[in-house]
Specification:
- The protein is of the alpha+beta class.
- It has one domain: Aminopeptidase.
- Helix content is about 40%, strand content about 25%.
- It has a 5-stranded mixed sheet with strand order 1-2-3-4-5.
Length: about 160
Amino acid sequence: MDFLIREAKETDLKQILNLIVELAVYEKAPDAVEVTVEDLKASGFGKSPDFLCFVADIDAKIVGIALTYTRFSTWKGRVLHLEDLIVSKNMRGRGIGSALLDKVVLHAANLEVKRVCWEVLDWNANAIDFYKAKGADVKRDWDVVHLDERGIKNYLFKLDSCKS
């Protein structure tokens, strides 16, 4: 079965969101996805898009995505962040993930960034093995830190309380 790796189009967004939800289910967080098709459209297809998404397309069916954006490292300068690389469960093992990662790395080279970075869950042995086989350095000495929406509000509340 042949597939095409290309940049996402607005018409792909519903299928992209379905893959995002599939990933959330796989990562044992089925209710965590808050983003909508409208959010993806507004953030990815305006005058100044927040992200670039590549898709794996088989006869107009999106079976994989790689969503990227640039950021700045104080140590390296401009880097490319791979937010998610998702291949639908029933399509894994066909080279789609490799082709998507190839496209991301080519994109990074074209941007002349200093690094491509992403996170992987420590229990996702298949993904870790895949990334290591591609030459990625899986860092085990860094923890991911998040301050979610509620955390931001609590932080600001405490900050405001200290000023009073």
